[in-house]
Amino acid sequence: MSLYPKSDEIGDASLLPGERLEASANDVTFVCPHHGPISGILYVTTYKLTFITTEIEPLRKYNAPVGFITSVEKVGGVSSKGEHAYGLEIQLKEFHVFRLAFKQEGHSRREFYETLVQVAFPLSSGRDWFAETYCTSLRAEEEVDSGWDFFDMRKELERIGVPSKEWRITELNENYQFCATYSSVIAVPASVTDAQVEAVGSFRCRSRIPALSWLHPEHKSSLTRGAQPLVGQFGKRCKEDEAFLAAISCASPRSERLVVMDARPRLNAMANKAMGGGYEGDEDYPNMEFMFLDIPNIIAMRDSLKKLRDMCLATGNDGRWLSQLDSSHWLDHIRLLLASSLRIVDLLDRCQVSVFVHCSDGWDRTAQLCALAMLMMDPYYRTLSGFAILIEKEWLSFGHKFQARAGHGDRNSGEERRAPIFLQFMDVVWQMTLQFPSAFEFNEEYLLSILHHLHSCLFGTFLHNSEKERRSLYSSTISLWGVLTTEREKYSNCNYSSYNHSGTLYPTASIRRLQFWSRYYKRWHPSIQERAEHAHSSSAASVTLLGACSAIEKKCAELQRASDEKQPVV
Q1: Which of 179, 205, 359, 370 is the catalytic position?
Q2: H or E segment to which residue 134 belongs
Q3: Can you list the pairs that 436-439 forms with residues at least 24 positions away whose Cβ atoms lie under 8 Å?
Q4: Is 549 a catalytic residue?
Q5: DSSP structural state of residue 319
Q6: Which of 86, 401, 458, 501 is the most buried (most CB within 10 A)?
């Protein structure tokens, strides 16, 4: 199935199945920060906002899915004076602002504004997700695999060796009655009963118990994740919780040592005690080590992103670029995530000890750290399909609040709930691909496409906040992975060499090795778009090279099998 099958058209802009024109306006001026004012026609459909120039040859087209829209504000009134003083300012999630000037006569702005707000914020206007309309219309035209069976938690647990003597799958959350924000399939130590699991759930924030994420394939040290204990101001204890962590440490055959890594700064964890939360105490959990990773909360990350966004939207004074980037602290946060993940990897892989990671709720910083550590240690997650599995498992199934963090479809979504948690994870992944250019099967386009559809709302994958909520979309939407993982030639890295990177990766967590991801953060800038077009134009050569690499790998596999069997290859 093609990602964008063509249907009808508006101007020279193709429409998707189920997409329809909602409003249009002539004689609109796009106040472009790079090319100056440009006249054209503005369209809004049920899926995207499109501006097509009318006075520049060749005609230019500016597209943005309406899911990208953060806010729509009116600028000026009917009595406003000055050129381009009357119009709309449309803020996009992906570091861009559309400033559009309308003619003051005719009140065309009012109609367009009202329509755009309804389409951009379907939850607030009582509309269905366009992802549902798209799926229904697409199925009417052709037989479509929804792709929702791409990920199966049980199969993924089987891949890492569960169930086993040390680990089992509990059915307590089969209908999400135990923990509404966890997967229906949870792996716990085999020595722990369901009654004990329930007791632990009452002591962990939102019943997010320590659950298994990954097992080391050689020495079986475990990576588990959860939420903070509900210790409170008076140091409440839970013997079942203490026994649960002890069972995790005993489940490792090489070492009964368990390191508890709290992603928060210690002061933040102490402050959470006043609100009923807290952290594990040394005296209550003997034979365990405790570390605070000092990763700031979502407020600091949101402020950092705002500074980065303001820097990217600025059009002048390039001399301050580096100082503005430095003052945003964005790369400092990226470095800290990379360094913290490496600490987890070092403990699991080199020291052969088990690690339990948590923050406050266990769905933001915990997801970042566990997913990055697993990406470094398990080469399967560095493949096209494996990376999608990693996102499904550590982000979607463990309840990262994608809808709240991205503000999908809700005009009244509070700024305090939004945060660039998943974006930071993807940035760190991109940094790793630069340091290990042949270790990942996927390329930069794959990462960019995932981030694009994080906000496009074309697929059901990133809608809602948990697996439980998302299940209602399985029959009415399409999964992103059913599309991206089938377009292997487009998203494959021609330098990929699985033979040379079958073990753990240890990237350098130095600010001097980090780069600014211009193809994402400055993707609307003309120079970046030209680079992207150049990259697309060379895709044919890449496909040819990939074919040659595939043939060589196949021949190598035949030679290896023949060598193992001591038989000549004919």
Answers
A1: 359
A2: helix 130-141
A3: 436/501, 436/505, 436/507, 437/493, 437/495, 438/493, 438/495, 438/496, 438/497, 438/500, 438/501, 439/379, 439/382, 439/496, 439/497, 439/500, 439/501, 439/505
A4: no
A5: G
A6: 458
